[in-house]
């Protein structure tokens, strides 16, 4: 067989089903399975059979394999060297890799050193990333009995807080390390901020639920909107704790705890041999490097009755202390205002919180979390509202999954980038302490949006109205009346600042269109659109949201339509939306045979005709789209 010098290294484009299947077959023949990869390179024989291959996922070399007949040709070194060069060109100067234990010497000759080992695999690195991280950790090491909690906190719940309370009571110092990998609904920066805020890392005082202090809580159930609700916030009563901030140290996460580098199947929830191998790699790395750097002798974990993979992981941890999960039975805090009912045996879990958020149920999600987490829950619901608006089909003149509407400069992917760009600003907007701070955050969000979209305004109106609503809720507006009043007050304050900066007086004439409706606190939303949305128990169904959009279009003086088509045409648009809505309502109340066998198709055809006509005329009711998202959001929080 010819030597490597005559072999060519070529990329296997994994987006092609042909090449992906080819790589999967090759890996399967060599006892490996396909992992998530950015690229895969291979050396083939003259017949196109893969002799050796290796892939790259960000800074991790994976899926290295050599066909049995080519294992004496020295094909691994050139492949790995090729991936190192490729990574270097991308600005990645340090790489990690998984391989079998018997290959350790080969990769040591290529500049890699051992990080962790398990019976069936080892993890190696060719840089000093772990060494630097451990040096960072050593700067926080203290004497005495020290413990560690590694948590994903997706998001941070009362269960996490209970775990930290129980763990901190057993040690002199407790270190908390968040999972850094951004494969969660809440990004790492938010999860880190939630943990710090909850344990007092960003304030002088720390408030948290103490289940052992149940007798400190009033037995009175507190209803949303009550005076007590306003006095103490959404959280009913909380106990003040003075030892968590002094005992708990929240550290930066890294790629060296439960990440794609050490434990990719943590996120795949797959109880396989590969999963156990990667669990053991993660635990070996922790025991060899992380724990000694922090002088930690114990690791705390919460019991895991719901997830078999995490439960298995917990049982493998040496010197682990397993804290029983917090349940509703132990936590009076849940009673009185959550929309969903909790049984005594229900555990407090992040997955349950995410489920409620997906359903648009802020109250039940917030019931499971400390107050410091609420801004981030609100942020998810604001993003959900924008996504629901974008995903809605058959929106006349607007961008949706299968149409650009009246826009030549926007499409679905661009709108997605706009949403992603402004998402990080939602939680800070919720927490802004003054209208000016909120205004500045809005400006920064617009700049981020413009940078992500190449200068296209995808969501300026949504940034403004959702920012107002996010902030209003955190300022205590927990019912419709309070929300409308707070929206009006904050909007008017921002307009006064803007007009003053421009040297203009604040007069009624200075406010028109979108500003005028904002200054009213979006009165029409509370008097018309929100009640209309709530007339159907299937409020989030596409059919009902299409009807709501038409309702908004028929009642809103949409400045986006005025700018594009003129005031006269804008009034006609309102009339056309009203006529279409009346037809929708007629179909909705049709006899079953008419409704299901004829009217649905007719309705869709007429709505499609309206969409086509508005696209041709360049009419885009962007203001109505913003108000649809705002209505969905407010429905989810009050």
Describe the structure.
The chain has 638 residues and is an alpha/beta fold. The chain has 3 domains: 4-127, 3-Layer(aba) Sandwich (Aminopeptidase); 132-367, 3-Layer(aba) Sandwich (Rossmann fold), CATH 3.40.50.620; 389-637, Triphosphoribosyl-dephospho-CoA protein (Orthogonal Bundle), CATH 1.10.4200.10. The chain is 49% helix and 11% strand. A 7-stranded mixed beta sheet has the order 1-2-3-4-5-7-6, sandwiched between helices. Strands 12-9-8-13-14 form a 5-stranded parallel beta sheet. α4 packs across α9 (273-294) and α23 runs antiparallel to α24. It is globular. The model is unreliable at 201-241, 265-271 and 587-598 (pLDDT under 50).
Short description:
The protein has 638 residues and is α/β, with parallel strands linked by helices.
Features of the shown structure:
Rossmann fold; alpha/beta; 5-stranded parallel β-sheet; 11% strand; Aminopeptidase; 3 domains; 7-stranded mixed β-sheet; 49% helix; single chain; 638 residues; globular; Triphosphoribosyl-dephospho-CoA protein
Question: How many domains?
Answer: 3
Number of strands: 14
CATH class of the largest domain: Mainly Alpha
Terminal CA distance: 72 Å
Task: Please bin the fraction of helical residues.
Answer: 40-55%
In which order are the strands of the major sheet placed?
A: 1-2-3-4-5-7-6
How would you classify the helix and strand content by structural class?
alpha/beta
Query: Architecture of the largest domain in CATH?
Result: Orthogonal Bundle
According to CATH, the homologous superfamily of the largest domain is Triphosphoribosyl-dephospho-CoA protein
**CATH fold label of the largest domain:** Triphosphoribosyl-dephospho-CoA protein
How confident is the prediction overall: mean pLDDT? Answer: 84
Largest sheet properties: 7 strands, mixed
